[in-house]
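[job 0412] stage=complex_fold ligand=zinc ion status=START
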Amino acid sequence: MKIIVSHDVDNLTRKEHSKDLIVIKMIIRAFLELFLFRINLFTFSSRLSCIIKNNFTNIDELVKFDVKYNTKATYFFATSNDNTLAYKAEAPKVYVQTIIKNNLNVGIHGIAFDDIQKMKDEYIRFTKIHNINDIGIRMHYLRKNNNTFSYMKNIGYLFDTTEYSPELKQPYITDEGLIEIPFHVMDSYLFQDKGLQKYNLKYAIEFTQKIIDSNYDKNIVFNINLHQEYFSNGWKDWKDWYIWLVTYCHSKKIEFISYQEVVDELTAKQNRYKEHILTK
Ligand SMILES: [Zn+2]
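[job 0412] stage=complex_fold status=DONE, emitting structure tokens
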């Protein structure tokens, strides 16, 4: 088994949400989770403190951790907005530089999914602002329809990792010729039910460890997402789960692999297959 880790970046600050209900909902959720004993007082007060301090970013801390364990993590940043994702396309520029400087990876967190021109605009904006080409994408809220993959291929994305597969579906090339790298565990699906934290750290570790231990010897990639905003004591179970995941894989000598390496492997395999067909 090899492991891919990634971080969708949905929120950076409280202030970017002055025109939507995201932070209000976040506060209501924190109270409900406390009263339902889903989180403890420390997590609750840390979460309020993140809100008061206008800070959901955590990127410097997370980069430091990812570098320490050489996770090769990919951070996905948006370049346009919807009513849930509100930071400006330029806002993460300094973080993208930090990530790249530390030999980690970035990609696009896509908002548009059914309009090729809007999708193209997001891609061009990203390459202009960050001066980085050859990128992949994961859609915000995993939105897609029957055309999304062909639009992605057309625009020139190296890969997509929007498909969610708890059955551990492996990377493949779609009918449209796009490299799809399904992901298998997402923090919010793991911990939440009906928008509230339902499970604790112990459950999350047991759930994930079972997958790792029973697939340890297999030639597969295991693809995991932690939203960077949860690498915080305000979501302590989530943060501790990611720390456990990375240190556990490290201790078991499970190799961390980047999306780019998966793309390279699949492309080489495809080329060998084409050569084989031609020489037949
Ligand atoms: Zn998202």
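The chain has a mean pLDDT of 97.
[job 0412] exit 0
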